[in-house]
Amino acid sequence: MSSSNGARPTCDVAIIGGGPAGSTLASLIRKYNPDLHVVILEKAKFPRDHVGESQLPGVGHICHEMGCWDKVEAAGFPIKIGASYTWGRNMDKWDFDFYPVERFVEEPRPAKFQGQRTATAFQVDREIYDDILLNHAQELGADVRQETAVTEVLHEGDRITGLKLHTGDVVTATHYIDATGAVGFLKRAMNVSSWEPAGLRNIAIWEYWRNAEWAIEISIGATRVQVRSLPYGWIWFIPLGPDRTSVGLICPADYYRDSGKSVEELYRQALSEQADISALMANATPEGKLQSCKDWSHLADRIAGENWFICGEACGFADPILAAGLSLAQSAAKDLACTILEIERGEIEAQWLRDRYNDRVRKNIGQHIRFAQYWYASNGCFNDLKEHCQSIANDAGLSLSPEDAWRWLSQGGFAEEDPGHAILGSFDLKSARSVIDLFTTEAPSDGFAIDKFNVFKLNLRDAQEDTFGFPKMGRIHRHKCYRDSEGRTMPLMGPNLMVVKTLKESSDLASIMQGLQRQILASGVDPARRNNLLNHCMQSLEAMISQGWVEASYDPNGPKLQRKADWHAIRLSQD
Fold this sequence. Notes:
Blueprint: E1 11-16, H1 20-32, E2 38-41, H2 58-66, H3 69-74, E3 79-86, E4 93-97, E5 121-122, H4 126-139, E6 143-145, E7 150-156, E8 159-165, E9 170-171, E10 173-178, H5 185-189, E11 194-195, E12 201-210, E13 222-230, E14 233-239, E15 244-252, H6 253-259, H7 263-273, H8 275-280, E16 285-286, E17 291-296, E18 298-300, E19 308-310, E20 316-317, H9 325-345, H10 350-377, H11 386-396, H12 402-411, E21 423-424, E22 427-428, H13 429-439, H14 449-452, E23 455-458, E24 463-472, E25 475-484, E26 489-491, H15 494-503, H16 509-523, H17 530-546, E27 550-553, E28 560-563, E29 570-573
Helix pairs in contact: 1-2, 1-4, 1-9, 9-10, 10-11, 15-16, 15-17, 16-17
């Protein structure tokens, strides 16, 4: 392809930034189309320290697809099985696990990406992790140029014509990518503004420590991240290896300013006031590199232009309470890789692909921000920040009752990280609802709609059939969906599709269950996973009710659903 002035571009894809977003993007483009010339322009020299070490399980799937899972696993990072919190109505500790601890079996490391390891995550030393990813991109053929700073983005209107380097050279490309993280270098050059929710304007202060104790060790190398509330913020405690731990404080920027303390004074105060963390660090020594930064949640108004894209944290950032930074960055990079590969194929209209990337990634980040707002507004431990928390609640439209909170979250849309499955901000539906019950200042909610009703009818009066795109294996796969007048979509794939097919034939609970079971049997899914798939179908039905796609009512003569809290035992009963 040619640049706007008729000259041949010096590369196909120019990526500013070699962090996880940039290296993931480059690796996946090169994996699926080795003929494309991909250049990474990174101003730093790797390895280098970086904050943001805690992952969610989806990152492992992306690393596996990139072909670098074995390299990451060989680094020996602690396995993150979940997190331990003091948060919510009181100071009680509670655990949130990705995988049941009682089912986690001991196995030697390094291990393969299979079985229980597909449901866990890593706690990574970013100095090592980011270097692994960048070197992997280079091994796949990406032209990686470290210590190469971009000093100017050359553009004509919304079209970029080149990137001027510190050497005076100009790199031209068919596609330009901003993967510069919080710096947002290209984003700023193209005058893209961002939304910054007032209630999530925090600062982060952190230090790395040697020889801190792990709070808990599960099997070989597995543990939980520790999150501990304070009246003015919270502390993270993340083991990165046998003898290195990241310990940080998040607090509102206003509190830091009004305290009159230095960042070091505030950090030391926080560590001394949290007994659990103090005990773990009794024999630890700091590396002496205390750091701080602005930690504001934000979301770019747009992330795609005429011949450029924004990827990773430059797109947006959701408060680290959800540990979604790497997950959002690398999933956006995967999506963008598939988008660029499809634009190069020329089989799908390019503007549709740009719009789809913009909408999908921004929606995912927005839902994480929405969930983070709820976490902060619901923290009764912030005794000194009642007005601050109340302002978040007011801005978010929350009364903090379980039903109002659930309505607000679900109306924000279920994230499309895994279309067809009910997911709110990387949490499945049952986990999200349990968080609401833990946090609310009122009595826990009275359960799910599917527990209270037994007649379910599709509501498609305000909907039209449309298509949406889902990134998978280097392609954007187009699937049918319903889209309403407010722009909300209901993907017709996976459990969603099974539920819709069943509801088009039946409305009473007994027939619905029979219909779903027939579809699951016909799908050929492994017998051990059949009840898990039924579980996901029922969560999809609950999500459809929350968003108005399904109308629910109760017939006293019909059976009711009987299920255990873990959703893995579902049956009908006649009361």
